TrEMBL record:
Keywords: Iron, Iron-sulfur, Lyase, Metal-binding, Transit peptide, Tricarboxylic acid cycle. Its EC number is 4.2.1.3. This is Aconitate hydratase A. GO terms for biological process: tricarboxylic acid cycle. It comes from the Bacteria. It comes from Aquimarina algicola. Pathway: Carbohydrate metabolism; tricarboxylic acid cycle; isocitrate from oxaloacetate: step 2/2.
Amino acid sequence: MAFDIKMIKKVYSQLADRVNAAREATGKPLTLAEKILYSHLWEGKVDKVYERGSDYVDFAPDRVACQDATAQMALLQFMHAGKPKVAVPTTVHCDHLIQAKVGADADLKRANETSNEVFDFLESVSNKYGIGFWKPGAGIIHQVVLENYAFPGGMMIGTDSHTVNAGGLGMVAIGVGGADAVDVMAGMPWELKFPKLIGVKLTGKLSGWTAPKDVILKVADILTVKGGTGAIIEYFGEGAISMSCTGKGTICNMGAEVGATTSTFGYDESMDRYLRSTGRADVADAANEVKEHLTGDIEVYENPEQYFDQVIEINLSELEPHLNGPFTPDLATPISKMSEAAKENDWPINVEVGLIGSCTNSSYEDISRAASLAKQVADKNLKTKSKFTITPGSEQVRYTIERDGFINTFDKIGATVFANACGPCIGMWDRYGDKAADGPRNTIVHSFNRNFAKRADGNPNTLAFVGSPELVTAIAIAGRLDFNPVTDTLINENGEEVKLDEPRGYELPPEGFAVEDAGYIQPLEDGSGVEVKVSPTSERLQLLEPFEPWDGKNITGAKLLLKAFGKCTTDHISMAGPWLRYRGHLDNISNNCFIGAVNAFNKKTNFVKSQLSSEYAGVPDTQRAYKAEGIPTIVVGDHNYGEGSSREHAAMEPRHLGVRAVIVKSFARIHETNLKKQGMLGLTFANENDYDLIQEDDTFNFLDLDQFAPGKQLTLEIVHSDNSKDTIMLNHTYNDSQIEWFKEGSALNLIKKQNA
C-alpha cells in the first residue's frame, strides 16, 4: 500500500466538486494547473476568480518534504511554533551532507561519522513530531518523493527548489524556504501569488540520441533563467503523452532553472505504469477513477493560446541533443553546433570528467540508456577518454541497476559509482582533495541541473556543460566536447573507425524494482517523550533566537554593505559545498554571507569597503563590525537576484548579521519570499537605472517606511560622500500579512504570537 493513501483518496473524493465549481466560477475550461490550484484553496471552496500574477492566495498543500541541509533550519524554526505534531504528512531526506570522494561505501561511512550529530538531530526531531525519516544513503529527496509520495493532482511544497521534480507525476510541487514549510507543518495556510500559466505543446516523438533532457534545455534557451518567473509551465500534446513518467520528471526538475514556480504534466498511461511499477497500484486505481480531472480540459489543449499567458511549441521529432553552458543553464548549443561554438568561445575541448545521475537524471531509464553506451566500449574495443561517475538517485534504483548488471557494465569502463546522494551536483564533490580548487580552465559535462561557476567542484575555472545522461556518456567515451555521436566516429584500440550505436534502454525495469533496505524510518505514533538535544557548544547546530521586531520608525543612516555586480544567485549569497556542515548553525554559516558575490566597484569577491574604517575586508567581517556598532546596512543587486536554490540561509544570514534591506532590479520568486519571511525588506528599483546611482560610500535614509502599505512605493534618500543627494522610488510586492511579518520581525514570530 502507498504512503498516505487515505489522504490521497480524500483529495480525489473532493476533486470533481472543486474542479466543477472552479469551472463554473471562471466560466471557462481549465488547465491542469488551475484544477490543482483551485482544488487546494485553503477555504476549500471556490467563491472568486483569482488574477494570475497579481492576487495572493492561501493554499492547503497535501504534504511537505525537506532535505537535510534545509531541514535543519526548518525544523529548528518548527520547534518554536508550539505544535506537538506536524499537521500534514512530512518527510526529511538525508541527501546533501554526503561528500562524493572515493565511492559509495566509503563516502557514506565517512558522512555518517562526520555528520552523525546532524543526522541524529534530524532523526530525533522527526520522531518527536511525526515526520517520516529517510536516512543517509536512502536517496536524493526528489527521486525518493517521485518513487513513494508524488501523486497526480496533488499539491506539495518542499524546502528545495527542485521539489518541482514531482510535476512528472502530475503534481503541483513547489520549492519554498523553510519558513514556508513551517507554516504548512503547523497547520496554517500557505500563501502564493496566483501563478501565470505557460503552455508548452509537444508534438512529434523523441528518438535516437534525443532525450527528455533536451526538451527542458531547449525551453531554457527560449525562456532564459528568468522567463518562467511567477508562472507554472504545463506540458501537453502527443509528445508529452509519448514520454516516460521519469522523463517528465527530468523536464519538470529543470523548470527551476527558468525561474518557474513549478511545471507539470497531465495524468496519462506512463504515470499509471510508473505508479504500479513502484508498488502504488492503489494510487493508480484511485487516479483512474478521476482521471478526467487530472489533466487539462480538451478545449484548453486544442486552443492553448486562449487559456495560457504564453504558448511554446516544440516538435520532438526535429529536436536535437543539446549541451547548455557554461556558467548558466540557459546558454543552449545544439550538439551539431558545438564544434563551432567551442572554437568561437575558446572553450577547452578536452573533457576531464563526465558525470551522470543526480535528482535530474537518475531514473532506471536514464541509467539503462547510458549503460547501453558503456557496453559498446568493450564491444567496439574502445577506451573511455574521460573520467566517468554515476550518482544513483535512490537505493531502490541503485539496487535494481546492480541486480540487472548495469553497475558491472560501468565498472568495466572504470566508472566510479557515488553514494545515493546529491554529491557533485551541489558542490559536495572532493574533486581536488588537498590540491587547491582553482586550477586551470577545464571542461566537464554532466546531467545535473545547474552549472553556475564553482557549483560542482569549487573551481571558478571549471566550465560545466549540461546534457542528457546518454550524451554525457558518449562525450566521456570520446573525451571531447565537440564530439557529435549522431554523425561522428571514433578510432578504437585497433585503429579502426567505429560509430556508437544509438542508446537503448527500458522505461521501467522488466523484472520490476527491488530493494533490501529502502532506508525509511517510521516515526513514533506519540513522540511527546522524545528529547531533542542540541549542545550549546556545537559547531553544527544552534537553537534559534527570534529576530527583533521593527521599531516602527524609518530606517536612517544605513550604509552600503555590497553592490552586487551581475548574476547573484543563492550560491553567491550563501555557498554550499563545505559550508553545508553549518546549515544548522546560523551564526557559523553566516561567515559565508555574500563571499561569492562580485563587488560592483572592484569586480572582486568577498572584498568590500567599510565606511567605519575606510579599509577593504571580507563581507561577513565588515558586516559584523556594522552590527556591533548598531548601524543598519543595505545590499543592492541586479536582475533575477537570488536565482537558484531555495535555501533560506541566503535570507537568514544577512538578517542575522544586521542587513535591513535588499534593493534590486528584480528578484527570483523563492528568494523574495524568503526575505519577506525573515522580516527583511525586499525591494525593487522603480527605475532600474537608479542602480547606477549607488556609490561605494553612500548613506541611505528611508523617508516613508513608517507608512509602509500594500501597493504604495517607498521613498529612499541617497546621501553621497560629497553630501549631494538623490531621491529614488522603490517598488515592493508586500501585502498586509507580509507587512505584519516585517513588523513582527519574521513570519515565525507572528506564528508563535498567534499560537500563544
